[in-house]
Amino acid sequence: MKETDSTLDINAVETYLNSHLDGFHGPLKATKFTVGQSNPTYLLSTPNEAYVLRRKPPGVLLKSAHAVDREFRVMSALAGSNVPVPKVHLLCEDDRVIGSAFYVMEYLQGRTFVDPVMKGEDNTTRTGVIDEMNRVLAELHMVDIDAVGLSDYGPPGNYFERQIARWTKQYRASETETIPDMNHLIAALEHQVPEDDNQRTLVHGDYRIDNLMFETNGTGCIGVLDWELSTIGHPYADLAAVIMQWQLPPGKEGRGLAGVDRENLGLPTDRAFVANYCARRGIPAIENFGFYLAFNFFRMAGILQGVYKRALDGNASDPKRAQAFGAYVPIFAQHGLSALRSEA
Q1: What is the percentage of the chain residues whose pLDDT exceeds 90?
Q2: CA dihedral 299, 303, 305, 306 (to 10 degrees)
Q3: How far is the CA of 154 from the CAs of 70, 228, 297, 337, in angstroms?
Q4: How far does Cα 66 stand from its chain's mean position?
Q5: Are residues 128 and 233 in the same domain?
Q6: Which end of the chain is more exposed for a tag (fewer CB within 10 A), N or C?
């Protein structure tokens, strides 16, 4: 879904692309995608071509947030790999052009699914899409980061220690009230970090079905999108992020599979999805999966808190929707604590 947007200086964009993008010919029209909360994203249309522009939001931002330059770098590195990504055209880090950094990439012609139930699709499609989601995730974690030039894309050391510290800091910076369960979850995660097993891979950071684009008439994935949270880290964070999403309620808000008759819909269990992933990577069964699941609930709570704070500050991409996100923070904290007490 798209809408018009008056905050993007379309004349400045057109002038810049005329000078920097080979083959570009205006006039240019821009419409904003309504999906997404972090980095405003626009469809750029000309009489002969379509592009996508993704920018940092305006206003005061957290230091390490909205890293469109990192998105550009990782998709550039993955071009030609077994991980499908859109072709990226250019990156502009000069804030003087439109007020914030942005990049331009190709516009993919395909379809996306809002949630894993995939209402209206048949079981063959559902099974195929989820299996493809599993395959692409395994391929992502088998990318040779040295060969594609991403070995320095994230710092060394224990990924989960680093991430817990980072997101705790981000959460504190955007905290608007005391949430006891969130404080308990942070303390528990810090205490239960597993020993480093030396798995160091590219991780997406927000791997879920609505960040993937599929063939219009098939189940093949043609593009993995929204790389803002990507880094070099531990692959189980991505895997557990999928399972975290599925444990939420189905429907527009939760977009999960809690209570859904998966077998009747051709959808795998959590355990089957994890087992298929391990088989594709040739690794043994994962121990202490509850920790990785809890970590994802914690990080998502931190992300939602940041979106809520931006709404209060007037900087959210979709202010009305962002305002509602604050109510979900304690719910995700509760889910995180529950995950630590059980195995997925």
Answers
A1: 81
A2: 140
A3: 11, 13, 22, 28
A4: 12
A5: yes
A6: N
Of 78, 106, 134, the residue at which a domain comes to its end is: 106
- In which band, very low, low, confident or very high, does the pLDDT at 7 lie, cut at 50, 70 and 90? confident
CB 30 within 8 A of CB 8: yes
Is-contact 34 3, C-beta < 8 A? Answer: yes
- Of 150, 254, 166, which is closest to residue 200 (Cα–Cα)? 150
Beta strands of the chain (E only): which ranges?
Answer: 2-3, 29-33, 41-45, 50-55, 88-92, 102-106, 201-203, 212-214, 221-224, 231-233
CATH number of domain containing 23: 3.30.200.20
In tens, the pLDDT along 130-147 reads 999 999 999 999 999 999
Residue 116 within any structural domain of the chain: no
Dmax (CA) for the chain in angstroms is 58
What are the φ/ψ torsions at residue 142 (nearest 5 degrees)?
A: -105, 5
Tens-digit pLDDT profile for residues 70-89: 999 999 999 999 999 999 99
How many domains, in total, are found in the chain?
A: 2
Q: Are 180 and 334 in contact (CB under 8 A)?
A: no
Residue 100 Cα to chain centre, angstroms? 21
Q: Which two tokens stand for residue 52?
A: 């996508």
Which domain covers residue 269, as residue numbers?
Answer: 123-340
Comparing CA positions, the residue from 209, 208, 230 lying closest to residue 159 is: 230
Q: Does 93 have pLDDT greater than 50? A: yes
